[in-house]
Amino acid sequence: MVAACTSLPRLEDSIEPRFRLPDELWTKIETVLPSHPPHPKGGRPWANDRQCMEGIYYLTRTGIQWCALPRCFGPKSTVHGRFQEWVEAGVFHKLWKRGLLFYDAEVGINWTWQAVDGAMSKAPLGGEATGPNPTDRAKKGVKRSLQTDGAGIIIGLAVAGANRNDHKILKPTLESRPVRPPKGTRQNLCLDKGYDYDETRAVLKEFEFVAHIRSRGEEKIEMERNRKRKPRRWVVERAISWMNRFRRLLIRWEKKLENYRALAQFVCAFIAYRASRLW
Prior knowledge:
By secondary structure, this protein is of the alpha/beta class. It has a domain of 146 residues: 2-Layer Sandwich (Nucleotidyltransferase, domain 5), CATH 3.30.420. Helices cover 40% and strands 14% of the residues. It contains 11 helices and 6 strands. Strands 1, 2, 3, 4, 5 and 6 form a 6-stranded mixed β-sheet that branches. The chain starts with 10 loop residues before the first helix and ends with a helix. The N terminus is likely disordered.
């Protein structure tokens, strides 16, 4: 008797749910996507938007190359082409802004206490906004400067070369915020000793921030006095850890700055929506 053949699992069924976009998030994403132009003379139909977006999300989470993208997300050239169209249309920046507004409505952005810090990553292929990493034998690297609210939600993002000092990219970070606080809000900004410069204080005065900068050696003394008390800026360090879980950001393979920034904005939007208890 011939044994019955068992059918192999489909590739799309083998993709873990954590690499798929939740339905609740997709309903938010599709509201910012541009509409497709009609084809009155016929032609190949447009690829499914959700399929392409999930392919971009899968690539961002796993860090794989475009050419290694599983077929269940569609042809790699189609997914990459759709990504370029959305980058040019500013889709990922709009999604980040919508995510922050949704989080503000559901939970509330903590504008009173904020924090800024930078994190360096490898950039083997180089490209715009990269430079020699002083902590990695001067190999090419990139720096992500993050601004978070009091709960660690990313509200500001700037990208520069790894050789740029943190205080030099503070102003671009503050200018990148998609949403701004209500008028009259007292904003306290916590910074580490890497921002202990007169230039930093001038920038914070321009943006009407109350500066809380740890001078060199002061933080170590404070921690020894009270070991149970954590600095308020620990939330930005946690946000950096959240972003590093997306492997495509941990090592930058994009030569184009706008592509890398778009992926980072996509991650910022995902974090904001997830913190909104959307799923």
